[in-house]
From TrEMBL:
It comes from the Bacteria. Keywords: Oxidoreductase, Peroxidase. InterPro entries: AhpD-like, AhpD_core, CMD-like. Residues 18-95 form the Carboxymuconolactone decarboxylase-like domain. This is Alkylhydroperoxidase. It comes from Streptomyces alboflavus.
C-alpha cells in the first residue's frame, strides 16, 4: 500500500506537518501524564480508523513502558479495570470530543466536569489540545491513506 500523496515530499505539506508536529511537541512540556496522552491518542485513532496513528501511538506507548494489557483494552476501556479514574475521564472526553457530530450538544457537561475533577487548568488545556491535534492528524492520514505498520518508536523525534 502506498499513500495517495507524499505529504512530506511536498513543500506545502511538509510545512503543514512541521507545524502540527510543533504543536504536539509543545504538549510534551505540560504536566499531563505522557501515558494519558498516548492512551487518548490511541483511542481517538481507533475511533477515526487511522491505522498509521494507531500503529504509532501503540508502539510509542509500549516503548515508554505501557503494558500490552492496557494497550489492548483501550478500545473497551469502559469495561476494563486497568485504567485510573483520571484516565477514564480523559478517555471519555476524548471520545466525546472526537464524536462531536454524533451528539447534538458536543461534549457533555458531565464529561467536562469529570475531567475537571482530575486535571488542573493547564492539564485540561493540554488534554483538549491533544484531542484536537489527534483528530486533525487522523483526518490527514486517513484522507491520504498513509500506510500503517512500519513506524518505529521515536521516528519523528
Amino acid at each position: 500500500m502506498k499513500a495517495r500523496i507524499d505529504f512530506h515530499g511536498n513543500a506545502i505539506g511538509a510545512k503543514h506537518v512541521k507545524y502540527l508536529a510543533s504543536a504536539g511537541q509543545a504538549l510534551l512540556a505540560t504536566s499531563l501524564p505522557k501515558a494519558t496522552m498516548e492512551l487518548v491518542a490511541l483511542r481517538i485513532s481507533q475511533i477515526n480508523g487511522c491505522g498509521f496513528c494507531a500503529d504509532m501511538h501503540t508502539k510509542d506507548a509500549a516503548h515508554a513502558g505501557e503494558t500490552p494489557v492496557r494497550l489492548n483494552l483501550v478500545a473497551t476501556w469502559r469495561e476494563a479495570t486497568v485504567f485510573s479514574e483520571a484516565e477514564r475521564a480523559a478517555l471519555e472526553l476524548a471520545e466525546q470530543g472526537t464524536r462531536v457530530a454524533d451528539a447534538a450538544g458536543g461534549v457533555s457537561d458531565a464529561a467536562w466536569a469529570d475531567a475537571a475533577q482530575h486535571y488542573d487548568e493547564d492539564q485540561l488545556v493540554a488534554l483538549v489540545s491533544t484531542i484536537t491535534l489527534m483528530n486533525a492528524l487522523n483526518r490527514l492520514n486517513v484522507m491520504i491513506q498513509q500506510p500503517a505498520g512500519d513506524y518505529q518508536p521515536g521516528q519523528f523525534g
